[in-house]
Each structure stands twice: as structure tokens, then as C-alpha cells.
């Protein structure tokens, strides 16, 4: 089961400047005898404390020798595929837990579908009904495309969809459903991203493009840094505090920002059972059954709207309008519009690929533990940390650098024509390159094995085949061929050169894989090879081989 990390182990260490240490200072009017007694008592206490420390150290070393442990960090920008990679690890190493949870993913899949429909309706809306920000779809997901001059395409003149009003009216119930799903998925007592001590603010600064004339300090000071403490504030959550822009009066169908659910929330449990704990369970899978009898279940609204959703998605005028606005929903996260009838069926249970496609932004850091047998070893405990990749989440990464053995860095390479959801001025590929540079150049991570997943290769191939030219977005690509082989090699080279130039450890070998982490068969093969690499590297570091 996922475990939320609230406090790093070193958080308990105190520094001389802390208030407790100050409070323990001797009284200023201490006599000579008192002073000698105190010093003796302190020496005795120190001897006892040192011997306890020594015992702990020996015990820890013994443990390390007897039980191999591997800590792996999944890093990369938002929507790079970190959580999807974690799901693949789960599917491989604890399939029963993965399957037990899949019914809960129904809520996320429904929400992904409803929001895709809303994006279409927003894109079709006559311009005068949208406010200034509504035209800027870039706040929604990374599927918004920028033109080669870096600006979203103009949407002023374009195809009018004759059935727009009918679609909007018939799909109105989805607005209320969206609100309900968001409420279901959101925790009642969390509303802010994980925050860190100011000591770690540097990392965030280091992982964004520098401002002009800004001197960015090295990401981390290895020695003597204050202990990190992750604080999760508890407040009451409202839809607007969850990062969802209020639509004002009228349907919330114009709400924009991506739904974020803190990893500590219990949404899986809530949605898996809800008020249905008395519902029958399947004798085969043990999964809840019979939710379709519950008139309040979201499936009914979706089922009733399925026909209209299908008409909307298939309408040639709609397709044209989306094309004019360069919105390619097929490439965006959580795309289920090609399977409306299956997804909205009353007895729908998400399949493995459905769960892998489901999009829920990570906030905070989530830890998964697996015991993975490895050759003659009796089992290695793997701790995999999945972090939030959005800009405001990256400051939470640093405390995990200290004990990490390996990093799997995900860089989606299909995103060369897209902008960051959190900052539409920044090209997503540029952001990945900057982030990559900051990770590989970190001295703190110098001895950490690094595996690079050049991800979303399936989307890259489709994009290139659709005629999108890399050179329009990356001038340095020049007039090289715009086919998958040439482009993927170019990216491999680009990331490889950055590692070569910036790594503080010239001995470190970099392992690069072209991946599509939604593809289970391909990813399983890659994961097992990555596992071997990490184990070997780890044993080498532990000087056991
Ligand atoms: N087609 C395709 N989709 C992918 C691939 N990798 C990830 N996705 C999808 O992209 C979306 C985002 O993936 P996530 O795993 O949630 O991304 P993340 O890196 O965890 O993002 P944050 O939690 O915001 O940091 C999901 O809907 C995935 O199903 C891929 O290789 N190909
Ligand atoms: Mg994630």
C-alpha cells in the first residue's frame, strides 16, 4: 500500500541554533561545584549515548549486509509518466493489489472522460462567451500545441458547429457530475502541496529556467545541511482551494485547471466502497458488484449522455474546429473518447490498460514497497518513490536524494511542440532538458545509478507521422529527416551529451531506454533489465561484488 512520507528520518536531528538547545544551556550563575557535577554528568551521559550510537551503527550495518535494500526515485516533469511507471512496477510485482484497486480508478477514468468533453465544448464556444483566460487552454493539459513562433494558434475565426447549443444543453448534467467526482476524489482535509524547510528552496530554484542575470547556486550542499521537514498543512478543502477555478454562476463546465489529488488522500478506498460496503462482492475477484443498482452512481449520468458524447466526438465540424485550435485530444492524458460506450457501460470495470491510461496528477511524494526476488538473493526490498513533477512540487524531491540508490528519470520526447501547463511560456522539452541537467550535475547524486526513459515514443511516432516537424520547434534540428528513427536518435544524443558534459562522476554509465510506459509488454521487459542494472550497481556500491 502507498505510504505518505511526512517526515524525513533526519528531521529529528537538532542544530545548535535550535530553541531547545538554547533552553538547555547552563544557568549563568552556576557555582564551581555545580559546574563540575554537571560536566561529569554530561560526560557520563555522552559515554552512554556514544555506546548506544555505536550499537545502532553496528546493527544498521548488519541489517544492510543481510538484507539488500534499494531506494529508487522516479523523477521527471509533470505528465512525464512517473506514476504510470509505478503502476507498471505494481502490475509486475504485486498484481493482486493492482487488480484490487482497479474498480476505484473508475472515478478517475470518468473524470478524465468528462473533462475531455468539457474541453471540446469550451473549444466550440463562440468567442464572446469566453473570458480572456478561457481562450488559453494551456492551463488544462500538455496537449495544447504551440505554433513555431511560440504562441497558441489564433481561434478568432473558425468553423461554427451548428449543433453546439444542442450538445451543450444535452451534456449539461456532466457539469454537476464533474463537481461530484472532484469532491469524491478530494480529501476533506488537505489542500496544499507538500512544503519544505527553507533550506531546500534551492532545489526548486535550480529546476526552473534561470532568469536573466541570475546566478543559480549548486542544487545542494552535501555537508552540514539542516534537516529537512516536510509539513503538510491541514485545512478544509473547497473546490476552489483544490486549484479548480470557480466558474461563477452557471455550470462548472468552464472550470479549467487539472484536478490534483494529494497522494495521502484515501480516494481509492472512498470510491471503491462509498456507501456500497454492503454491496455484494464477486466470488471470483472479491470486487464490489451491483453499483449499477445504486441510482446515485455516476455511471447513470454518463450512460444517459453516452450517445450525445459520441455524436459530439464524431461530428466533422467539431473535428475541424479542434484542428483549427490545434487541440489534439488523442495525445492528451486520460483520453477515452474513442471508447465512450465501453467506458460508460453500467457494469464497466476498468481494464489494466484503462488504469494505466488514467490521469491523476501527483502531489507530494508517494512510497511503494516491493519485495523482489533477485537471483540467488532471498529478496530485495525495493522502495520506489513517485513524486509530483509540476514546478511547485519539485522542492519536495531533495530530501529523498540522500538515501537514493537509483533514479529513473522520465523525459517525454513527444512534447517538443507543447508548453508547460504551469507556465505556458516554457516549452515542455526545454523544461525536461533543464531538469535533466540539474539532476545529472548534482554532486549529491554523483554515485547514484541513473536510468533515462525517453518516454511517450508511441505519441512521438504518431506526431511525426501526422506531419508535425521537429525543426519548427527546435531550430537546432536543422534539415535532418523528420522520421522517428532520426528524431529519437537525436534526442538520445542530446540527453546523452548533457550527461557526459555535466556529470561530476565521469565513470557513471548512463542507461537509456526508449519507452511507452503505457505499454505493459514492452515496459515489463525494460523494467526487468533496469532491475538488474540497479541491483548490480547497488551491490557494487555496497562493495559486495
Ligand atoms: N500514450 C502514452 N501515454 C502515456 C505514456 N506515459 C504516460 N502516459 C500517460 O500520460 C499521463 C500522465 O502520466 P503520469 O504517469 O500521470 O505522469 P506523472 O509524471 O506521474 O505526472 P505528475 O504526477 O503530474 O508528476 C497519463 O494519462 C498516462 O497514462 C506513454 O508512454 N504513452
Ligand atoms: Mg504522478
UniProtKB/TrEMBL annotation:
Stretches with biased composition (Basic and acidic residues): 32-44
Keyword Magnesium: yes
CDD domains: G-alpha
GO cellular component terms, semicolon-separated: cytoplasm; heterotrimeric G-protein complex
Keyword Acetylation in record: no
Domain of life from the UniProt record: Eukaryota
Keywords linked to the UniProt accession: GTP-binding, Magnesium, Metal-binding, Nucleotide-binding, Transducer
Location of region: Disordered: 1-44, 234-254
Record-listed GTP binding positions: 356-362, 455-458
Name of this chain's protein: Guanine nucleotide-binding protein alpha-4 subunit
Amino acid at each position: 500500500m502507498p505510504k505518505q512520507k511526512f517526515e524525513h528520518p533526519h528531521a529529528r536531528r537538532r542544530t545548535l541554533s535550535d530553541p531547545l538547545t538554547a533552553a538547555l544551556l547552563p544557568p549563568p550563575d552556576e557555582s564551581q561545584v555545580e559546574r563540575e557535577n554537571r560536566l561529569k554528568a554530561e560526560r557520563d551521559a555522552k559515554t552512554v549515548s556514544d555506546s548506544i550510537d555505536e550499537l545502532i551503527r553496528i546493527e544498521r550495518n548488519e541489517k544492510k549486509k543481510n538484507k539488500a535494500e534499494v531506494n529508487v526515485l522516479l523523477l521527471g516533469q509533470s505528465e512525464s509518466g512517473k506514476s504510470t511507471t509505478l503502476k507498471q512496477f505494481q502490475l509486475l510485482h504485486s498484481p493482486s493489489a493492482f487488480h484490487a484497486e482497479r474498480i476505484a480508478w473508475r472515478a478517475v477514468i470518468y473524470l478524465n472522460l468528462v473533462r475531455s468533453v468539457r474541453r471540446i465544448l469550451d473549444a466550440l464556444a463562440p468567442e464572446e462567451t469566453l473570458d480572456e483566460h478561457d481562450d488559453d487552454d494551456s492551463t488544462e493539459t500538455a496537449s495544447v500545441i504551440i505554433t513555431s513562433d511560440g504562441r497558441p494558434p489564433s481561434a478568432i475565426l473558425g468553423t461554427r458547429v451548428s449543433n453546439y447549443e444542442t450538445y451543450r444543453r444535452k451534456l449539461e448534467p456532466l457539469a454537476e457530475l464533474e463537481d461530484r467526482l472532484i469532491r469524491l476524489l478530494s480529501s476533506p482535509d488537505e489542500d496544499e502541496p507538500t512544503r519544505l524547510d527553507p533550506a531546500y528552496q534551492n532545489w526548486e530554484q535550480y529546476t526552473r529556467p534561470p532568469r536573466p542575470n541570475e546566478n543559480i547556486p549548486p542544487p545542494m550542499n552535501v555537508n552540514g545541511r539542516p534537516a529537512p521537514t516536510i509539513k503538510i498543512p491541514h485545512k478544509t478543502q473547497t473546490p476552489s482551494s483544490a486549484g479548480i477555478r470557480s466558474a461563477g454562476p452557471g455550470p462548472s463546465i468552464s472550470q479549467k485547471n487539472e484536478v490534483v489529488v494529494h497522494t495521502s488522500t484515501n480516494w481509492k478506498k472512498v470510491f471503491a466502497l462509498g456507501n456500497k460496503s454492503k454491496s455484494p462482492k464477486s466470488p471470483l475477484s472479491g470486487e464490489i458488484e451491483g453499483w449499477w443498482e445504486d441510482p446515485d452512481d455516476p455511471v447513470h449520468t454518463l450512460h444517459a449522455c453516452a450517445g450525445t458524447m459520441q455524436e459530439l466526438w464524431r461530428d466533422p465540424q467539431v473535428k475541424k474546429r479542434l484542428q483549427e485550435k490545434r487541440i489534439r485530444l488523442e495525445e492528451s492524458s486520460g483520453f477515452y473518447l474513442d471508447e465512450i460506450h465501453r467506458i460508460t457501460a453500467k457494469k464497466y470495470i476498468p481494464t489494466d490498460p484503462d488504469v494505466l491510461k488514467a490521469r491523476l496528477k501527483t502531489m507530494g511524494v508517494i512510497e511503494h514497497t516491493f519485495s523482489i526476488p533477485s537471483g540467488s538473493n532471498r529478496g530485495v526490498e525495493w522502495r520506489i518513490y513517485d513524486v509530483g513533477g509540476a514546478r511547485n512540487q519539485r522542492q519536495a524531491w531533495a530530501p529523498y536524494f540522500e538515501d537514493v540508490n537509483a533514479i529513473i528519470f522520465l523525459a517525454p520526447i513527444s512534447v517538443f511542440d507543447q508548453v508547460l501547463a504551469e507556465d505556458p511560456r516554457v516549452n515542455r522539452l526545454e523544461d525536461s532538458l533543464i531538469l535533466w541537467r540539474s539532476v545529472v550535475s548534482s554532486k549529491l547524486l554523483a554515485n547514484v545509478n541513473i536510468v533515462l526513459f525517453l518516454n511517450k515514443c508511441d505519441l512521438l511516432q504518431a506526431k511525426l507521422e501526422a506531419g508535425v516537424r521537429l525543426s519548427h520547434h527546435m531550430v537546432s534540428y536543422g534539415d535532418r529527416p523528420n522520421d522517428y528513427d532520426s528524431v529519437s536518435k537525436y534526442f538520445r544524443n542530446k540527453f546523452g551529451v548533457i550527461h557526459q558534459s555535466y556529470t561530476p562522476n565521469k565513470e557513471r554509465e548512463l542507461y537509456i531506454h526508449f519507452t511507452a510506459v503505457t505499454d505493459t509488454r514492452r515496459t515489463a521487459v525494460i523494467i526487468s533489465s533496469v532491475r538488474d542494472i540497479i541491483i548490480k550497481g547497488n551491490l557494487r556500491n555496497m562493495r559486495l561484488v
